[in-house]
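Subject: sequence -> C-alpha coordinates, single chain

Hey, anyone have a minute? Need the predicted structure for the following. Not urgent.
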Amino acid sequence: MTVGAKSRSRQRRAAWVCTLVLVRHAASEGAGKFVGQTDEPLSGEGRRQLSKLARKLSKFRFDAIFASDLTRAVETARPAAEHQKLTVQKRPGLREMHFGRWQGFSWQQIQRREPRAADLWLKHFPSQSIPGAEKFKQFKRRVKLQLEAIVEANQGRCVLIVTHAGVIRVALGAALGMKDENTFRLAQDHCAVNVVEHFTDGRTVRCVNA
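Reply:
Had a minute. Here:
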Protein backbone atom coordinates (compact mmCIF):
# COMPACT_ATOMS: atom_id res chain seq x y z
CA MET A 1 0.00 0.00 0.00
CA THR A 2 1.35 3.42 -0.95
CA VAL A 3 1.69 6.31 1.50
CA GLY A 4 -1.22 8.07 -0.21
CA ALA A 5 -3.42 4.97 0.02
CA LYS A 6 -2.58 4.56 3.71
CA SER A 7 -3.50 8.19 4.31
CA ARG A 8 -6.85 7.74 2.55
CA SER A 9 -7.52 4.56 4.53
CA ARG A 10 -6.86 6.39 7.83
CA GLN A 11 -9.14 9.23 6.76
CA ARG A 12 -11.87 6.76 5.83
CA ARG A 13 -11.68 5.05 9.22
CA ALA A 14 -11.74 8.42 10.97
CA ALA A 15 -14.93 9.30 9.09
CA TRP A 16 -16.69 6.06 10.13
CA VAL A 17 -19.96 6.72 11.91
CA CYS A 18 -22.09 3.59 12.35
CA THR A 19 -22.49 0.02 11.09
CA LEU A 20 -26.05 -1.16 10.49
CA VAL A 21 -26.72 -4.89 10.32
CA LEU A 22 -30.12 -5.09 8.63
CA VAL A 23 -31.98 -8.39 9.00
CA ARG A 24 -35.27 -9.44 7.47
CA HIS A 25 -37.57 -11.19 9.92
CA ALA A 26 -38.06 -14.98 9.85
CA ALA A 27 -41.02 -16.50 8.00
CA SER A 28 -44.41 -15.49 9.39
CA GLU A 29 -47.84 -17.07 9.23
CA GLY A 30 -48.66 -14.86 6.26
CA ALA A 31 -45.58 -15.72 4.18
CA GLY A 32 -46.34 -15.62 0.46
CA LYS A 33 -48.88 -12.81 0.80
CA PHE A 34 -48.78 -9.02 0.87
CA VAL A 35 -48.59 -9.04 4.67
CA GLY A 36 -47.58 -5.39 4.98
CA GLN A 37 -48.52 -4.03 8.39
CA THR A 38 -50.76 -6.94 9.36
CA ASP A 39 -49.35 -8.18 12.68
CA GLU A 40 -48.50 -11.81 11.95
CA PRO A 41 -46.53 -14.05 14.36
CA LEU A 42 -43.71 -16.29 13.18
CA SER A 43 -44.73 -19.60 11.65
CA GLY A 44 -43.26 -22.93 12.74
CA GLU A 45 -40.83 -22.66 9.83
CA GLY A 46 -39.87 -19.16 10.97
CA ARG A 47 -39.11 -20.31 14.49
CA ARG A 48 -36.91 -23.07 13.09
CA GLN A 49 -34.99 -20.47 11.04
CA LEU A 50 -33.91 -18.61 14.19
CA SER A 51 -31.10 -21.02 15.12
CA LYS A 52 -29.43 -20.55 11.73
CA LEU A 53 -29.83 -16.78 12.04
CA ALA A 54 -28.23 -16.89 15.49
CA ARG A 55 -25.14 -18.54 14.00
CA LYS A 56 -24.91 -15.87 11.29
CA LEU A 57 -25.19 -13.07 13.86
CA SER A 58 -22.73 -14.62 16.34
CA LYS A 59 -19.77 -12.89 14.64
CA PHE A 60 -21.16 -9.44 15.49
CA ARG A 61 -20.99 -7.60 18.81
CA PHE A 62 -23.97 -5.29 18.90
CA ASP A 63 -24.22 -2.12 20.93
CA ALA A 64 -27.96 -1.76 20.36
CA ILE A 65 -30.82 -3.72 18.80
CA PHE A 66 -33.85 -2.18 17.07
CA ALA A 67 -36.88 -3.81 15.48
CA SER A 68 -40.11 -2.95 13.80
CA ASP A 69 -42.84 -3.12 16.41
CA LEU A 70 -44.65 -5.85 14.45
CA THR A 71 -44.59 -9.26 16.16
CA ARG A 72 -42.68 -11.12 13.45
CA ALA A 73 -39.77 -8.67 13.68
CA VAL A 74 -39.69 -8.54 17.49
CA GLU A 75 -39.76 -12.35 17.75
CA THR A 76 -36.87 -12.57 15.29
CA ALA A 77 -34.80 -10.00 17.19
CA ARG A 78 -35.39 -11.45 20.65
CA PRO A 79 -32.84 -14.35 20.59
CA ALA A 80 -29.98 -12.03 19.58
CA ALA A 81 -31.02 -9.55 22.28
CA GLU A 82 -31.10 -12.24 24.95
CA HIS A 83 -27.73 -13.64 23.85
CA GLN A 84 -26.06 -10.22 23.95
CA LYS A 85 -28.00 -9.04 27.02
CA LEU A 86 -29.64 -6.14 25.22
CA THR A 87 -33.20 -4.84 24.99
CA VAL A 88 -35.12 -4.89 21.71
CA GLN A 89 -36.03 -1.26 21.03
CA LYS A 90 -39.28 -1.22 19.03
CA ARG A 91 -39.68 1.37 16.29
CA PRO A 92 -42.99 1.74 14.39
CA GLY A 93 -41.05 3.68 11.74
CA LEU A 94 -39.39 0.41 10.74
CA ARG A 95 -42.68 -1.22 9.73
CA GLU A 96 -43.21 -2.61 6.26
CA MET A 97 -45.14 -0.48 3.77
CA HIS A 98 -48.91 -0.59 4.21
CA PHE A 99 -50.35 -2.35 1.15
CA GLY A 100 -53.87 -0.99 1.41
CA ARG A 101 -56.62 -3.30 0.24
CA TRP A 102 -54.04 -5.78 -1.08
CA GLN A 103 -52.91 -6.68 2.44
CA GLY A 104 -53.55 -10.31 3.29
CA PHE A 105 -53.73 -11.50 -0.33
CA SER A 106 -51.24 -13.35 -2.52
CA TRP A 107 -50.16 -11.91 -5.87
CA GLN A 108 -52.23 -14.56 -7.68
CA GLN A 109 -55.32 -13.53 -5.72
CA ILE A 110 -54.69 -9.84 -6.46
CA GLN A 111 -54.32 -10.53 -10.19
CA ARG A 112 -57.67 -12.33 -10.20
CA ARG A 113 -59.45 -9.71 -8.07
CA GLU A 114 -57.97 -6.54 -9.60
CA PRO A 115 -56.19 -7.40 -12.86
CA ARG A 116 -56.06 -3.82 -14.19
CA ALA A 117 -54.73 -2.34 -10.92
CA ALA A 118 -52.15 -5.14 -10.69
CA ASP A 119 -51.01 -4.55 -14.27
CA LEU A 120 -50.70 -0.79 -13.78
CA TRP A 121 -48.73 -1.25 -10.55
CA LEU A 122 -46.23 -3.57 -12.26
CA LYS A 123 -45.78 -1.24 -15.21
CA HIS A 124 -45.56 2.05 -13.34
CA PHE A 125 -44.03 1.26 -9.93
CA PRO A 126 -43.30 3.31 -7.85
CA SER A 127 -45.42 6.18 -9.20
CA GLN A 128 -48.52 3.97 -9.41
CA SER A 129 -49.96 3.45 -5.91
CA ILE A 130 -51.80 0.40 -4.64
CA PRO A 131 -55.44 1.27 -3.87
CA GLY A 132 -55.65 2.54 -0.28
CA ALA A 133 -51.93 1.92 0.36
CA GLU A 134 -49.10 4.03 1.72
CA LYS A 135 -47.49 5.86 -1.19
CA PHE A 136 -43.96 4.69 -1.95
CA LYS A 137 -42.56 8.22 -1.63
CA GLN A 138 -44.02 8.50 1.89
CA PHE A 139 -42.78 5.03 2.81
CA LYS A 140 -39.27 5.85 1.59
CA ARG A 141 -39.22 9.09 3.57
CA ARG A 142 -40.42 7.31 6.73
CA VAL A 143 -37.67 4.70 6.44
CA LYS A 144 -35.00 7.31 5.65
CA LEU A 145 -35.87 9.43 8.68
CA GLN A 146 -35.94 6.42 11.00
CA LEU A 147 -32.58 5.07 9.84
CA GLU A 148 -30.97 8.51 9.99
CA ALA A 149 -32.17 8.91 13.57
CA ILE A 150 -30.71 5.52 14.54
CA VAL A 151 -27.35 6.30 12.92
CA GLU A 152 -27.20 9.74 14.54
CA ALA A 153 -27.90 8.28 18.00
CA ASN A 154 -25.39 5.42 17.60
CA GLN A 155 -22.21 6.98 16.28
CA GLY A 156 -19.19 4.69 16.57
CA ARG A 157 -21.41 1.67 17.25
CA CYS A 158 -22.62 -1.52 15.59
CA VAL A 159 -26.41 -1.79 15.50
CA LEU A 160 -28.76 -4.66 14.65
CA ILE A 161 -32.03 -3.71 12.94
CA VAL A 162 -34.63 -6.44 12.42
CA THR A 163 -37.23 -5.26 9.96
CA HIS A 164 -38.96 -6.08 6.67
CA ALA A 165 -37.98 -6.70 3.06
CA GLY A 166 -39.27 -3.36 1.76
CA VAL A 167 -37.48 -1.37 4.45
CA ILE A 168 -34.18 -3.12 3.74
CA ARG A 169 -34.54 -2.64 -0.01
CA VAL A 170 -35.05 1.09 0.50
CA ALA A 171 -31.96 1.25 2.73
CA LEU A 172 -29.81 -0.71 0.28
CA GLY A 173 -31.14 1.21 -2.71
CA ALA A 174 -30.22 4.51 -1.08
CA ALA A 175 -26.74 3.27 -0.19
CA LEU A 176 -26.15 1.97 -3.72
CA GLY A 177 -27.67 4.99 -5.48
CA MET A 178 -30.30 2.83 -7.21
CA LYS A 179 -33.40 4.12 -8.94
CA ASP A 180 -36.55 3.46 -6.92
CA GLU A 181 -38.03 1.23 -9.63
CA ASN A 182 -35.02 -1.11 -9.35
CA THR A 183 -34.90 -1.57 -5.57
CA PHE A 184 -37.32 -4.50 -5.59
CA ARG A 185 -34.84 -6.44 -7.73
CA LEU A 186 -32.81 -6.90 -4.53
CA ALA A 187 -33.54 -10.35 -3.11
CA GLN A 188 -34.38 -10.45 0.59
CA ASP A 189 -34.95 -13.96 1.91
CA HIS A 190 -36.34 -14.56 5.38
CA CYS A 191 -33.53 -13.98 7.92
CA ALA A 192 -31.37 -12.33 5.24
CA VAL A 193 -28.39 -10.43 6.71
CA ASN A 194 -27.21 -7.16 5.12
CA VAL A 195 -24.42 -4.86 6.32
CA VAL A 196 -24.17 -1.15 5.53
CA GLU A 197 -21.37 1.00 6.94
CA HIS A 198 -22.25 4.67 7.37
CA PHE A 199 -19.55 7.32 7.07
CA THR A 200 -19.70 11.08 7.31
CA ASP A 201 -19.15 11.20 3.53
CA GLY A 202 -21.33 8.30 2.38
CA ARG A 203 -22.16 4.62 2.79
CA THR A 204 -20.55 1.30 1.90
CA VAL A 205 -22.56 -1.90 1.43
CA ARG A 206 -20.56 -4.82 2.81
CA CYS A 207 -23.09 -7.64 2.57
CA VAL A 208 -26.45 -8.31 0.85
CA ASN A 209 -28.95 -11.13 1.47
CA ALA A 210 -26.44 -13.39 3.24
